[in-house]
Amino acid sequence: MNRILIIEDDDILRKNIAFALEEAGYSAQMSANLTESEKMISDSDLILLDVILPDGNGMDFCRNIHEKYGTPIIFITSCDDEADVVNGFDCGADDYIRKPFRLNELLSRVKAVLRRSAAFYDGPELTAVEQKLLEYLMQNKERFLTREQILEYLWDSKNCFVNDNTLSVNISRLRDKLKSSSCGQIVTKRGLGYKWTQQTNS
Fold first, then answer.
1. What is the widest separation between alpha-carbon atoms in the chain?
2. Beta carbons within 10 angstroms of residue 120's beta carbon
3. CA triple 192-42-138, angle to 5 deg
4. pLDDT value for 157
5. Angle 82-90/58-68 helices, nearest 10 degrees?
């Protein structure tokens, strides 16, 4: 389940967004300011970020987060001048939504950004099961996933029916294909499971 952090000082809007996200199957965390949100960032797959906040500017915050964590960010803001939009993308945002907006539109943008964040594989062609496995690991980068969590995710995916033995085979094959890719690798730790680690340049 993707974890989304909402940094928005409007209480009603923040709670409405959180409700819509959870109804759509996401896990939502909420913060009304930048200081409070800092301890939640490392546990987030996506950040919905206002620009004007009580304790700082969202664009400066976005730039710092982009450099440190690489977490995808969507601005949700009433700052709708062309210069604001350009500045938003320049500081590292993945999308920019002007207030007021429809919640269905926001959900569509969230889905698109999460899909793009898991779409940078550049190796050999993957099977359907390998693709779903890679997407799930990428969406939960730097977090260990148990075999049970992975099996449950794959079983719930259309046309991807995998048991414990075939999961081992698919992980092994995916590892081999990742050797020809520059995007990252799968790390295994006994007792914890598997996690995705993004490739870093040495």
1. 55
2. 13
3. 60
4. 52
5. 20
> 121 Cβ partners below 8 Å, 6+ apart?
134, 181, 183
Query: What's the rounded Cα separation, in Å, for the pair 72 and 33?
Result: 18
Residue 21 has a pLDDT of 96
Q: Has this prediction a pTM greater than 0.85?
A: no
Q: What is the pLDDT of residues 86-100, one digit of tens each?
A: 999 999 898 999 999
* Distance from C-alpha of 37 to C-alpha of 42, rounded to nearest angstrom: 10
- DSSP string of 30-43, one letter each residue: EESSHHHHGGGGGG
The angle formed by the CA atoms of residues 26, 73 and 67, to the nearest 5 degrees, is: 130
- The amino acid present at 175, given as its one-letter code, is R
The burial of 16, by beta-carbon neighbours within 10 Å (0-12 exposed, 13-18 middle, 19 or more buried), is given as middle
pLDDT of residue 151 exceeding 80: yes
Angle at alpha carbon of residue 82, lines to 79 and 85, rounded to 5°: 60
Burial class from Cβ neighbours inside 10 Å (0-12, 13-18, 19+) for residue 195 reads: middle
What is the bridge-based pairing of β-strands 184-189 and 193-198?
antiparallel
- Eight-class DSSP state of 135: H
Residue range 32-62, pLDDT digits in tens? 999 999 889 888 889 999 999 999 999 999 9
Helices within the chain (DSSP H only):
11-23, 34-37, 58-68, 82-90, 103-117, 128-139, 147-156, 164-178
